[in-house]
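Long-time lurker, first post. I've been practising inverse folding by hand and with some scripts of my own, and I keep getting stuck on stretches where the structure tokens seem ambiguous. Below is the full token string for one chain I'm working on. Before anyone asks, I'm not after the true native sequence, just a reasonable design that respects the backbone. If someone could post their per-position residues I'd love to compare against what I wrote down in my notebook.
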């Protein structure tokens, strides 16, 4: 029989007496380093967001709410764009106003009551000007040509020209450019997206038109090149359930998870093929797609920062300077140790060993100029979210240019605002 106390309540531990601390005469009170040093420093903006996030890592409601606020800040542009489109294509009296009785009616209805025959005349001068400008652009008949800047590289320039013209034909660029020019003239903003994807089971680099009303970005507004000072951009993307599965599902389990979020679509009607197509693109909403046959997602790109290391490898002739994450630093140290052993075994001195420099060689000129070593590296990071904030996909920029897939331009951009041709 053991001497344990069986009358203890559940969860009450056995108290073991601790040995008395011996007081050494003249000994000072020791203060741990953690008590006098600063608290953990934030070295990764994404990690700090997850720590402050009260939800699971599979959700990012903070980012979703931020993107919504950015999109809402462009509401005046979206309303002006739709109004300009109405003016261009004949509905010049469609503004909602108050009549003499205080009722909200269209401007056409208000004016028609004062006309003897009830008909309000209008002259569509704007459309003729827009059509003339687009016609001038399409009648240029020029082809894109790439010229090599280096001597004796004409062959490479010709190869690039063939590649560009192939992409031009695959993407039906004359049609796309006409639509982009119309957007620029009507709303002052044109957006396109260049990605590697599959179209009709053919993988290639495709250029996609982006509805400016679904696009959003946040910038300082100081640079006339808005891509240069943006820290957030993205778009609202609506998928059919088939497109959603092809894009995000890699297994039957992934497909079942998507169907739990969006539903299987069995109760979806045929309103997507209704005749009221205009209202689907004028009644804009952040949360609700224009048809219940569509599944809404949000592709959001943010300019993040993280502690990384810029290193220099003298034996790497193709790319001697590159950036690594802190967790890869042990691999670099292991390679250096391996090189040192190999070179010393061959009779070389330590100074002759071509070590990979990550900032540990303090006397190196690259380190003194702060071109090598620890840096806070900025990079574009993408998250694709659902309406509930679930992260469907997350990745850093996979492109060689390290940017986003979006290309957008605004006409008459000044002080953070842009002014379309129609308004001028």
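-- Answer (accepted) --
I ran through it position by position. Result:
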């Amino acid at each position: 029989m053991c001497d344990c106390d069986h009358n203890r309540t559940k969860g009450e531990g056995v108290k073991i007496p601790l040995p008395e601390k011996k007081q050494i005469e003249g000994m000072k009170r020791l203060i741990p380093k953690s008590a006098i040093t600063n608290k953990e420093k934030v070295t990764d903006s994404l990690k700090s967001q997850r720590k402050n996030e009260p939800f699971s890592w599979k959700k990012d409601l903070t980012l979703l709410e931020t993107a919504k606020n950015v999109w809402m800040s462009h509401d005046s542009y979206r309303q002006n764009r739709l109004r300009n489109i109405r003016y261009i294509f004949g509905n010049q009296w469609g503004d909602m106003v108050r009549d003499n009785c205080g009722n909200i009616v269209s401007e056409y209805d208000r004016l028609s009551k004062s006309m003897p025959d009830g008909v309000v005349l209008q002259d569509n001068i704007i459309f003729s000007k827009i059509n003339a400008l687009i016609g001038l652009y399409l009648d240029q008949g020029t082809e894109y040509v790439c010229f090599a800047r280096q001597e004796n590289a004409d062959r490479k320039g010709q190869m690039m020209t063939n590649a560009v013209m192939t992409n031009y034909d695959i993407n039906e660029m004359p049609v796309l450019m006409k639509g982009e020019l119309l957007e620029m003239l009507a709303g002052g903003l044109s957006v396109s997206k260049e990605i590697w994807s599959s179209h009709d089971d053919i993988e290639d680099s495709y250029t996609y038109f982006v509805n400016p009303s679904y696009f959003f970005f946040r910038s300082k507004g100081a640079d006339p090149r808005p891509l240069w000072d943006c820290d957030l951009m993205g778009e609202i993307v609506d998928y059919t359930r088939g497109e959603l599965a092809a894009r995000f599902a890699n297994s039957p389990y992934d497909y079942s998870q998507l169907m739990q979020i969006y539903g299987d679509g069995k109760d979806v009607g045929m309103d997507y093929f209704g005749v009221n197509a205009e209202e689907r693109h004028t009644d804009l909403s952040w949360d609700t797609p224009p048809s219940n046959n569509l599944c809404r997602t949000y592709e959001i790109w943010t300019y993040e920062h993280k502690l990384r290391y810029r290193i220099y490898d003298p034996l790497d002739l193709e790319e001697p300077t590159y950036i690594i994450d802190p967790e890869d630093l042990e691999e670099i140290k292991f390679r250096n140790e391996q090189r040192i052993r190999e070179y010393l075994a061959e009779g070389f001195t330590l100074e002759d060993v071509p070590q990979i420099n990550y900032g540990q060689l303090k006397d190196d000129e690259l380190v003194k100029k702060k071109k090598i070593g620890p840096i806070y590296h900025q990079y574009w990071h993408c998250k694709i979210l659902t309406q509930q904030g679930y992260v469907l996909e997350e990745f850093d920029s996979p492109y060689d240019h390290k940017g986003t897939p979006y290309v957008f331009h605004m006409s008459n951009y000044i002080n953070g605002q842009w002014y379309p041709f129609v308004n001028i």
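A couple of notes from the structure itself: The longest helix spans residues 154-170. The first strand starts at residue 96 and ends at 98. Happy to go over any region you disagree with.
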